[in-house]
Write a structure and sequence with these properties.
Blueprint (H helix, E strand, L loop, with lengths): L6 E3 H8 L3 H9 L6 E3 L2 E5 H17 L18 H15 L2 E6 L13 H7 L2 H15 L9 E2 L5 E9 L2 E11 L10 H11 L3 H8 L7 H38 L4
Antiparallel strand pairs: 1-3, 2-3, 4-7, 5-6, 6-7
Helix pairs in contact: 3-9, 4-9, 5-8
């Protein structure tokens, strides 16, 4: 291979990846592609693109397929998790709730964004983490996500949405860690005592942290489930776009032999 790098124009990169100009700009914006401007026009290193193609191919090869029809073979690993995590964090902070993206079995794919002190205490323990995963798994076990908030093992409220790739349910986003009303009227000392006994935490510490859990007003209680579903749909679209791109990369790899 020549030591001289080649700079590709946006149109040449479109033809190479078989995507439209808007997709190229989206990929630049979220960091999946790297480029630079020359005289106001985007240019892309052919060598860097080749390395990126190889990286995407390697990522696809190590992804474990879901059980199901051979023609589907969609995986939650096909989601660009760095991009998902960034959007999840902005969403959580904007609405003042915690958020996490998980596998269908409840295993977290991302760190919990904007997590409250109460949940941090609970998840610090093995039992607490297991209970949180069980709550996420129970939600995903339902036939479909609803617009009605659910209640987790610790008595906090949350909403969730399905992330689907090629018609397969592969992941979920959960947004919650809130109460419908202040702790004095929501929950009982017996529930805190049970949680403390199970996790080994001090009941007084849990009760104190519970006071910092956000209480959503009626407007946000109505807004949150709908926003969660919109974010889940966005994640599904991002995943579909990536799967389509990876498919093109596979075909390019099969057809192209670089000098």
């Amino acid at each position: 291979m020549s030591d001289i790098d080649v700079l590709l124009t946006t149109r040449q990169l479109q033809e190479l990846l078989q995507v439209d100009r808007i997709t190229i700009y989206h990929m630049l914006k979220d960091g999946r592609l790297q480029g630079f401007k020359v005289g106001g026009q985007w240019r892309f290193s052919r060598r860097a693109i080749e390395s990126w193609l190889q990286e995407q191919q390697a990522n696809l090869e190590v992804a474990a397929p879901l059980e199901g029809p051979d023609e589907v073979q969609t995986t939650a690993q096909s989601l660009p998790l760095s991009c998902i995590q960034a959007i999840q964090g902005i969403f959580a902070e904007a609405l003042g709730v915690g958020a996490v993206t998980t596998a269908v079995d409840g295993t977290p794919f991302t760190p919990v964004a904007n997590s409250c002190k109460f949940c941090n205490l609970v998840r610090r323990t093995n039992v607490g983490r297991e209970r949180c995963i069980a709550s996420w798994r129970a939600a995903a076990g339902k036939a479909q996500a609803t617009l009605q908030p659910a209640t987790c093992h610790a008595g906090l409220r949350y909403a969730w949405g399905r992330i689907e790739l090629r018609g397969e349910f592969v992941a979920a986003i959960h947004a919650g860690q809130f109460l419908d009303s202040p702790p004095a009227r929501n929950g009982s000392s017996s529930s805190i005592a049970e949680l403390a006994a199970a996790t080994g935490l001090r009941a007084r510490e849990l009760q104190g942290a519970l006071k910092d859990v956000p209480v959503l007003d009626e407007r946000r209680l109505e807004q949150l489930p709908r926003m969660v579903h919109r974010v889940a749909q966005t994640f599904s679209e991002i995943g579909e776009e990536r799967l389509a791109l990876v498919g093109r990369l596979q075909r390019i790899a099969e057809m192209t032999t670089y000098p």
